[in-house]
From TrEMBL:
It holds the Pfam family bPH_8. This is PH domain-containing protein. Residues 18-103 form the Sublancin immunity protein SunI-like PH domain. The lineage of its organism: Bacteria, Bacillati, Bacillota, Clostridia, Peptostreptococcales. InterPro entries: PH_SunI-like. It comes from the Bacteria.
Amino acid sequence: MYIILSIGILFTLSLLLTTNYKIKNDKLIIRSGFSKIKISINDITQIKDSNMYSMEKNKNSSCYYTSTAYYTMPDRILIHTKDNKSYFIALNNAKNLIKKINKINPKIIY
């Protein structure tokens, strides 16, 4: 009984602590836990590597963050958009995501 309960809890935690993305209709859709963010790839102006582990929402600007599991070493990137929003994303193999985004919008600065 406890084993089944433990497996259920671990499975639920793994879903909540995972960051995934997909590209659909030239939009980047990022899911992390219960959060879902959609970013138009044509609105992305810059992508930068980051050494941060989290990003607080700034009261004076429109900055968003996604959560990640701190015990892993995912790639961390910042995505900046035309409307001065910044998105902090931590996920495995971010270089693959950057390649896919650059195929759609090669004007993005990296």
